[in-house]
Amino acid sequence: MSRVIKRVPAEYVTEQIGGGVICPKCGAGNWKRTTPEKCPICGTMEVPDPVRYIKRRIPGYVEVRCDCGETVICDGFTNTCDRCGKDYNWNGTLLAPRSQWGEETGETEGDIILGV
Q: So which domain of life are we looking at (predicted)?
């Protein structure tokens, strides 16, 4: 019986973008300094680069121990075991065999594979 061995929830991280000083002419920048000086490349006066913060989502995933012993990482809509070919959904639930997919809706296996 397959079982979930690990759940990693999605998380949001705050990242800093910008900061330091940047040359408006050549684009060279120094992210360690905050006071403008003359650009060592082109001699133009550098300008402060404003600090901005963004939130970025890091998606979660589920690890499942398949019946065959292989570990399957479920991070997409359908996740297939490389060893035995069993399919799992994003939550780590074992799906019906592919031969049964579309039985309720009248789809064929070709329709499912082609995404029609």
A: Bacteria
